[in-house]
Amino acid sequence: MQSGSFVQFLYENYGREKFRRLWEHGVTHLPEITGKCYQEIETEWRAFLQSVKPTRSEVDWEALIENGCE
Asked: Most-buried pick from 26, 41, 44, 54 (CB within 10 A)?
């Protein structure tokens, strides 16, 4: 869930092209690709998390573990 929220944040805030470059080159290139240091990205991500309204939907953890994200 945590990594998924970070992926969503990166995609929504930096766009498809930068996300693709990050996927191809790895997280060590995050500052180069975004133009921001790790601490700035973390601060933005935490603000993003605070802005997302929680849902009341229940997660079926057994199905998620067994089937992954289908």
From this structure: 41
Give Cβ neighbours of residue 45 (< 8 Å, ≥ 6 apart).
5, 6, 9
The Cα 46–Cα 9 span in angstroms is: 10
**How would you write the pLDDT of the chain (70 residues) with one tens digit per residue?**
788 889 999 999 999 999 999 999 999 999 999 999 999 999 999 999 998 887 777 878 888 888 887 6
- Count of domains observed in the chain: 1
